[in-house]
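Might you be able to check the backbone structure tokens below? Thank you kindly.
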Amino acid sequence: MNRRWIKILALLMTLVPVMGQAAPVRARLDDNGLQRVKIVAGSYFFQPDHIIVKVGVPVVLEVDTEAGIIPHSLVIWSPRMGIDVNERLATTSIIRFTPRATGQVPFYCEEKLIFFRSHQDRGMTGVLQVVE
């Protein structure tokens, strides 16, 4: 392989992670002053997996779980930000909290079947970003 093709291949390899990631989703503010985001939880994913909310404004996450027999949960924990969510997800789950500080905190599914990797380890994770 000549140098030109190696450079092209190296450039393409740097783009692969970017192409697979969806853009962050900003919570929308409803008429009641609540920030709302809809999330889908499925086989080892959350969609969206990067959510942006404002500090000091109540957040409502509506989580729809895809049909199946595998249970899922949603954990978001940051004492500094005043967030303590640990919910077993139903078909539709409504989760409420108000972030008290800016920053980023991971969210994930903590479910794990014996002898298998956890859902978090299999990629069922995301990031909650709290901004001014």
In short: The helical segments are 3-19.
